Fold this sequence. Notes:
The chain has 774 residues and is an alpha+beta fold. 44% of the residues lie in helices and 11% in strands. It has a domain at 84-409: Catalytic domain of cyclic nucleotide phosphodiesterase 4b2b (Orthogonal Bundle). The strands form 8 sheets. A 4-stranded antiparallel β-sheet has the order 13-14-16-15. It has a 3-stranded antiparallel β-sheet with strand order 1-2-3. A 3-stranded antiparallel β-sheet has the order 8-9-10, with no helix packed on it. The chain is globular and about 80 Å long. Zinc ion binds at residues 164, 168, 200-201, 269, 310. This is Phosphodiesterase.
Amino acid sequence: MQRRGGISFDRTDKNALYIRMLGDVRTRSKPDLGRERRRSSFPDIDYKTFEECDDSPRSNLRSYTHRWKRRRRWLNLSLQTVSLLDEAYSGQARHLLTTVTDWDFDIFMLDKLTNGRSLFHLSIHLFQHHNLIQTFNLDIVKLTQFLSLVEENYNNNPYHNALHAADVTQAMHCFLRERKLGARLTPLEVLSAVVAAITHDLDHPGVNQEFLRKTGNYLATLYNNHSVLEHHHWRGCVALLRTTGLLNHLSLQERQDFECQIQSLILATDISRQNEFVTSFKQYLDKGDLTLHLPASRHFTLQIALKCADVSNPCRTWKVSRRWSERVTDEFHNQGDQERKLKVDIANSCDRYRDTISRIQTGFIQFIVEPLFVQWERFSPTRLARHMINHLRVNKQRWNGALATELAEAEAAAAAVAFAESQPEDVEMSGQAAMDPPGYRQAPPPGNDPLPTSPGVESETSSSHRTNSQSDDDPTTFAEVSGSGDIRFEEPGPSNNIPGHSASHSGQWDGTKLCNHIPFVRSPLDTYRAAMTIISLHDAPSTEDILTSIQLDRSDVFHSKLKSLNGPVLSAIVNSSGPTLSARLVDVGSPPVEVLKDGGCARVNGTVGSVCYNGSSRTTDLHSGHSASPTARTVSSQECSKPDDVTAKLDPKADDKLHHGSCATSRNNGTHDRIATWLQNAPFPPSCNGGSTHPGCVQGKLSRWTDISEAGFEGNIPKAHIAYSSTISHEQLNSTLPIGATSCRKNSDDSCRSEDVKMDTDSSADDEQEPIQH
Ligand SMILES: Nc1ncnc2c1ncn2[C@@H]1O[C@@H]2COP(=O)(O)O[C@H]2[C@H]1O
Ligand SMILES: [Zn+2]
């Protein structure tokens, strides 16, 4: 073989010159490769060279016969050897395969060197490496057929393709080599682990189970919406095993046992069962119960190992890991595009206008990968485990940085748009100057390598999404990017004061108006939320908080977003430095059942996430014995006069203090339940002056009560809306509050009283006194 740059001359004969160009290699992972093409059993490139180079003048028939003979000769030649690597690259690929036990093994390179057949060659190599061919007396032709068919039956999805299977198989191999696990496994367990890894995503359609369900796909019906894809992958594996007769020489019982093992391993990769497995794994480790001399323990560990392998791409080197992230994002977005077209709900992580690569990665790492690998390291605290975790942490940091930059840019863009739109029409501005408000500087990118951008991802706040226009009296906002990268909003100039907005609040401005600049505001409730978010920017403790706030105010998306986050529950936070609201996700460990309303609190799996004060989210463990309903806290009657003595109870016997900002319930005159949000140190509007002149405001502290019969519960989550802001005039506030919320309203004597928005006429009597009962 001769080599010239990217072109290698494989061999010559009378009629043809076999040329391979590295840049022209078709990989099966390319999405544009037709499905028919993948049905061919041998490398596409070889067909191509046969067909294209053989151009000697012959009749069609002769030409066909000649090509067929040549092809058959080649096929025979190939089948004689275990490896089908073509001559040009076999040396390099073989050399690369000698490092297959290294975690930093580059599967993309192997794919290139094997002309897109990494799964096949890797598998053959591993069968030899683990001595499976000899141990199980496997027929090499059947094995070759089996592995070829497996590879062919992976589709050319961006992510779920044969290359992903190869990647997972290589990871699985690394785990099998770990002393603790590998030394205990029987050959049959090794065989099942390798076969399960190779086939675990067989014939993956590139969309998730939910998509199949929504679109009425027969697979969803066939498997009753239960681990639909995984059942399909397993069935495919069994079909290929039986078609090729690879294990026909084993007894029926052995074959059935083997198929069951594979089933259980593949079904464990259902990502919706992640928590279930991580929790059990953790419990086993806590109790020191994972005794690998028991077959059941070994099997469970193999399930975990396969799960780790399946989501291990964020634990690879940044260079490799990033490529997987791009691919998976690509696939998700393709699904979202289809869903948009079909006018069905766009699945979590699948909206290219909302779910950017860095958002997807940060969530995936935080909620899926890290919890699992942390436990894996406990189980097998080896160099490999540490190495993987190190990569994971580095990658996590990079995606976090990318996310912060991305969102800061989106925010800056929104501010720029707001500014541009606030300019009188006759003022001519051009180019960037038109978009840069005074005082605005572009955020410097964080120091790292350039990060990938997701193809087609648009800024969430790009002007094309805007639906609201700005009125003449809108305040001007000025964004400034501080040295730390945080965004701060400067105060608007005096000329931008809003009618009805107290001058003494010059440090704040009208969020209600400002939110008109937010393109996704659609309803009064959205307006209210957007206002709260924008206001919060003033004191938001970090860019992350700001960004989360913004994210939340995409109220058209946040419900599904929350559900997608697989753990966080939405809560709201009152910043310590002012009467401002921002929103934050509170991680409470497992999928939220409900979207938490502002001021609410929620319990998920024994953890309470509640509205918090002091700028930090709070989750509280529910100790056993405490109430089944942590959302119903009881506040003592001293609350109004001695706020610090307020006691909150998770149940009538408990004696916990009510956390600032957490929810409380009370009985009003023994007649109806009320719910309140407790906030400490929240200044009043100047007109209120705090004090006890009205029940809602106590010594500069605020407690708002909402009639539960009005606000009600959603599930077991009380709907207590935070309805106070000194930055919004009372009139504006009341016009934008959601039904059932409570507001602070001016009395004729300039004090304030709490009112339910819907209860203007009858609430005053109730509010004069708050007899609170336990
Ligand atoms: N880097 C990644 N980012 C986001 N999701 C991922 C990533 N890698 C794997 N996944 C998801 O995790 C799932 C694990 O099971 P699947 O391979 O069926 O499908 C996978 C993807 O949906
Ligand atoms: Zn997979």
